From TrEMBL:
Residues 6-245 form the Four-carbon acid sugar kinase N-terminal domain. It comes from Azorhizobium oxalatiphilum. Residues 269-422 form the Four-carbon acid sugar kinase nucleotide binding domain. Keywords: ATP-binding, Carbohydrate metabolism, Kinase, Nucleotide-binding, Transferase. InterPro entries: 4-carb_acid_sugar_kinase_N, 4-carb_acid_sugar_kinase_N_sf, NBD_C, NBD_C_sf. Pfam families: NBD_C (PF17042), SBD_N (PF07005). Belongs to the four-carbon acid sugar kinase family. This is Four-carbon acid sugar kinase family protein. GO terms for molecular function: ATP binding; kinase activity. It comes from the Bacteria. The keyword Kinase applies.
Length: 429
């Protein structure tokens, strides 16, 4: 039978988080690096959910079209009932880069349901959507800010969030008529809520944005999405809360989290994030040899990159874990290079290090960094191993390259993870 759930992540960290959500709830799921071959699908076995990890968050609209049209065709042919475009939980995007509205326009043709649901909020990682306005915590358990006043996301170096009302934010990206279904309606009961949604759909909106302000909202939203998907396959947009909502409706509850085992050998951790959260994790990582890389030299000077890779390889071969950072010490970007160029150079550097000293556990921090770096690795799929911190997945690499197959890979967005995350990547829980 066809998998009932498909997802495309606009970056690798987010895609792996959705993999974790589904696997924790008993769904047989795998995340492919790109559109899988028939042989890779066969090797993956029977699946409830199939994911594709991409990098559309960092793409211009034209690039997104070329990326997403084959994705739409693949999932439509696969027969999934629900296609989930997994965006960042903070919805940071813009008309010119990572446009969520453009993604909907490209993917929506293959999933022509009258309901185009957008799920705002993911409470377990401190994301809350009320009356269509998005709020986000500053780090795990941190103070909650309206997204346009968030200390990091309001000044994001690529896609700063200047509007908290997601209807207005998405209108600038081509979704001019987004209707909001607000959380007080969830208390009205199923029949009344169905009628309210029907009234909204009668006005043929471009999409319907669902509030999620608490965990209890998820099953309610999941029922509305899944009953639409049972009638006609549907495209849903949002963070991993889309998977949480549908699984809650299915009655698929998360199982106990597996403890993180100590690493077998040294860890290499590559951090490209400018986030204060990642900076604090780096400061707490006392068990690593720390190396500050010059991003511009890494991109422009092959001799510099080769020398740094050689030095890291020496430490790793000697059994010393290494944390290499491309973000400046002060946390503010001072390079003249475009972020995409830095990410590409970082990915090439990662390959060079692994060629010098293969490791059994690897960590990558930063959404764009993770996406580019994983694309540069010779792997075809990821399977879930555990969740060291909310929103952070540890995965097993599937690869035809013997040195990579079985590698344990942690992918982390800049805003995610506890302060001691990097230390626990070595020592376990």
């Amino acid at each position: 039978m066809a998998p009932r759930y498909g997802w495309y992540g606009d970056d690798f960290t987010g895609a792996s988080d959705t993999l974790a959500v589904l696997a924790q709830r008993g769904q047989k799921a795998i995340l492919f690096r790109g559109i899988p071959t028939t042989d890779q699908l066969r090797r993956a076995g029977d699946l409830d959910a199939v994911g594709i990890a991409g990098a559309s968050r960092a793409m211009a609209p034209g690039e997104m079209t070329a990326e997403l049209l084959p994705v739409a065709a693949f999932f439509a042919d696969l027969g999934v009932r629900l296609m989930h475009y997994k965006c960042c939980s903070t919805f940071d995007s813009a008309p010119h880069v990572g446009s969520i509205g453009h993604a909907v326009s490209v993917l929506g043709g293959a999933f022509p349901n009258a309901l185009s649901p957008i799920v705002g909020g993911q409470p377990n990682i401190g994301r809350f959507c009320t009356f269509s306005n998005l709020f986000a915590a500053a780090g795990t358990g941190g103070e909650v800010f309206r997204i346009d006043r968030h200390p990091t996301m309001s000044v994001h170096p690529v896609t700063p969030m200047a509007e908290a009302d997601l209807r207005r934010h998405l209108a600038a990206q081509g979704l001019a008529r987004v209707a909001g279904l607000h959380y007080p309606a969830y208390a009205e009961g199923a029949d009344a809520l169905d009628a309210r949604l029907g009234t909204l759909l009668a006005d043929t909106p471009d999409a319907v944005l669902f509030d999620v302000s608490r965990v209890e909202d998820l099953a309610i939203v999941g029922r509305l999405i899944w009953q639409a998907a049972e009638r006609e396959k549907v495209l849903a947009v949002g963070a991993s809360s889309v998977a949480q909502a549908v699984c809650a409706h299915w009655g698929a509850e998360p199982g106990p989290s597996a403890r993180l085992a100590p690493s077998e050998g040294p860890v290499f951790l590559l951090a490209g994030s400018l986030s204060p959260i990642t900076r604090r994790q780096r400061e707490a990582a006392v068990s690593y040899v720390k190396l500050q890389l010059d991003a511009e030299q890494l991109a422009r000077d092959p001799a510099y990159a080769a020398a740094q890779a050689e030095a890291i390889g020496v430490d790793l071969k000697a059994g010393r874990s290494v944390l290499a950072t491309t973000a400046p010490e002060g946390g503010e970007g001072d390079t003249t290079l475009p972020p995409g160029e830095v990410a590409v150079a970082t990915a090439a550097f990662l390959n060079a290090v692994l060629a010098k000293a293969p490791v059994k556990r690897l960590g990558i921090a930063g959404g764009d960094t993770s996406s580019r770096a994983v694309q540069a690795l010779d792997l075809w799929g990821l399977a879930y191993l555990g969740m060291p911190s909310p929103g952070v997945a540890l995965c097993r690499v599937h690869s035809d390259a013997p040195g990579l197959d079985g590698l344990e890979l942690m992918l982390k967005g800049g805003q995610m993870g506890s302060p001691d995350l990097f230390e626990r990547l070595i020592h376990g829980d």
